[in-house]
Amino acid sequence: MIPRFINLRIVRAAAQRAAVWRLLALGLAAGGAVSCASTTSSLTSSAPREILISVKDQKLALMEQGRPVAVYPVSTSKFCLGDTPGSYGTPLGRMKVAQKIGSGAPLGAVFKHRQPTGEVLPPNAPGRDPIVTRILRLTGQESGNARAFARNIYIHGTPEESTIGRPASYGCVRMKSQDVVDLYNRIPNGTEVNITKNRLPGTARLLARRQPPASPPLPAQLVVPVPKNTFKEHSGQIASTSARFGPPAP
Hints:
Blueprint: H1 8-30, E1 34-35, E2 49-54, E3 59-64, E4 67-73, E5 93-101, E6 109-112, E7 115-120, E8 131-140, E9 154-157, E10 173-175, H2 177-186, E11 192-196, H3 202-207, E12 231-234, E13 237-240
Parallel strand pairs: 2-11, 9-10
Antiparallel strand pairs: 1-4, 2-3, 3-4, 5-8, 5-11, 6-7, 6-8, 8-9, 12-13
């Protein structure tokens, strides 16, 4: 029998908090993206969600009412920050998700001009660097990122998962395939995106304390080569190459 002086509501709340921290501990021990909410309830929450991307941390935090729901490692531009055409820079400031592209596509599905090609690549496919899996196309909300939509600035999957966690892109924000699917399923079109040079809030850094190990490269025989003279989009420009495997994605 429970004594009368014990508040059952407080006991239940304490048990729920303990369960959440046990889940967080398991996620941190396993490495990779860390979440404190199920993807199955991704679009059922009435609270607005915001994507916060830290260039300094090379991480993306999905925020809800000022608190992190999930944190993922990412890769921003290896060239610069900014919105100048042809600079291959990652724009800073407030933007929105204008288009969600790739629903139902398998992990590693290759996209060209935002259309699936039918090719599917494994992580770290040798010599390959297209856009894969999912695309979140961004549109600028400030003068400093007004060209983001025209420059084809995306949050997207990359097969070069070994580069995630450091600046390596051509202007876009790259993610691991599993992570970009998880993020894609959690947000609607119109979601606010804020890319900043600053660090993530302390609570988000706590979730992302451990960096996941890089995915090992797979045998070359598993990769399907593409024709020469492949054309790709790079931040609003069309670049051609005669290299065997084509050019990198933004």
